[in-house]
Amino acid sequence: MNTTDLKLFEAVALHGNFTKAAEAMFTVQSNVTARIKSLEEEFGAALFIRSSRKVELTSAGETLLKYSRQINNLLEEARSTIGNPDTVKGRLKIGFLETTMALKGPGLVNQLADRFPSIELDLTSAMRDNLITDVLNYKLDAAFVPAPVHMDELQQIHIMDEQLVAVVPAGVRSLETVLKQEQLKVIVFDQGCFFRSRLETWLAGKGISNYHKTAMNSMEGVVNFIEAGIGFSFLPNQIITAFYSKRKIKTFPLPAAIGGIKTILIYRKDNLSSPVLKAFLSLFTDKKKKD
Questions:
Q1: What's the whole-model pTM score?
Q2: SS3 category, 21
Q3: In terms of DSSP bridges, do strands 90-96 and 119-125 run parallel, antiparallel, or are they unpaired?
Q4: Which partner from 71, 131, 233, 266 sits 20 to 30 angstroms from 211, CA to CA?
Q5: Residue 257 CB coordination number (10 Å)
Q6: What Cα–Cα distance (Å) separates residue 278 from each residue in 43, 88, 96?
Q7: Sequence-separated (6 or more) residues with CB below 8 Å from residue 73
Q8: Can you tell me the distance from the alpha carbon of 81 to that of 66, in angstroms, rounded to the nearest whole number?
């Protein structure tokens, strides 16, 4: 076993597919298959459950993945300490909600580039539950998600407080008139969206269950449909203020229990040996110390 074997193993765990892992590691599938088989023989246990559609980690594979991450993190730390202690190099995979990426992404990239220019960022957006799962499964190093998150494996840092507002077409006089419509229409993101969940909870609390839903996959699409008078939605006030203040829409405040959002940064506790992750987290922990 060598570090290349572990990297190939991690690639298969990440992609759930031998062919995709081979492409990501710039090798051939037969080599990946052979190295995984060699690892399984060395450890005396199956590391993956193989099917025609994908491969999944066994319990033994999950255990090895944790140790593999720790080994690679220690090697990163050794390279940084021995090679140039003032330079932290590596790549980070960070997840966001689409709205949080729009608000925090650009500033974060600039901040990281100024302090740690040798760290590369790979940013991705997804639904809240998917982001949490990907952090737990080591597919993301960290993710910005709405609280609360209560999982023993995860650590968290409070990032910011946001406020959801009801966003309606410009001609609407009050939120009450929207709710009294004969055919209530809402514009939402796909199933699993945190904002959609808050909207549906709010409507249920008012005893409203009969309404028409149109699901979109982008913020621009949601705003366009609201502006066209098709329906209303719940969106972060900061997003509306920053990017859509000149559109033909109107916002109404919501009760704190429904509208309040606390955004946190989550990461695995057992991934803290990574010097690259430590450097990234310092952007937020150092700021809190100054505050």
A1: 0.81
A2: helix
A3: parallel
A4: 131
A5: 10
A6: 31, 10, 19
A7: 271, 273, 274, 275, 277
A8: 23
User: Which tokens sit at 226?
Assistant: 């609201």
Residue 86 token pair: 């003032």
pLDDT at 287: 67
Alpha carbon distance 14, 17 (integer Å)? 8
Q: What is the pLDDT of residue 124?
A: 94
The answer for residues whose C-beta is within 8 angstroms of residue 132's C-beta and 6 or more apart is 143, 145, 149, 151, 154, 266
Which residue is listed with tokens 């993101």? Answer: 189
Residue 13 · residue 72 · CB < 8 Å = no
Question: Cα(260)–Cα(161) distance, rounded to whole angstroms?
Answer: 7
Q: Which two tokens stand for residue 93?
A: 């995979």
Q: Which residues, given as ranges, of the chain have pLDDT below 70? A: 80-81, 83-86, 287-291
Sequence-ordered list of residues with C-beta below 8 angstroms from that of 212, at least 6 positions apart, any chain = 183, 184, 185, 186, 231
| CB neighbours of residue 127 within 10 Å | 20
Considering Cα of 195, then 105, then 241, then 249, what sign does the dihedral take?
Answer: negative
pLDDT at 192: 82
Owner of token pair 């409203």: 208
241 burial (CB, 10 Å; 0-12 / 13-18 / 19+) is: exposed
What DSSP letter does each residue of 222-279 carry, written as one string? HHHHHHTTS-BEEEEHHHHHHH-TTSSEEEEE--HHHHEEEEEEEEEGGGTT-HHHHH
Give the tokens for residue 247: 């559109």
User: Scanning the structure block, which residue is given the tokens 């990946």?
Assistant: 32
Those residues whose C-beta lies under 8 Å from the C-beta of residue 129, and which sit 6 or more positions away, are 192
Stated as kind and residue range, the H or E segment containing 145 is strand 142-146
Give the tokens for residue 17.
């597919």
> What does the block give as tokens for 207?
């005893």
Rounded CA gap, 94 and 97, in Å? Answer: 11
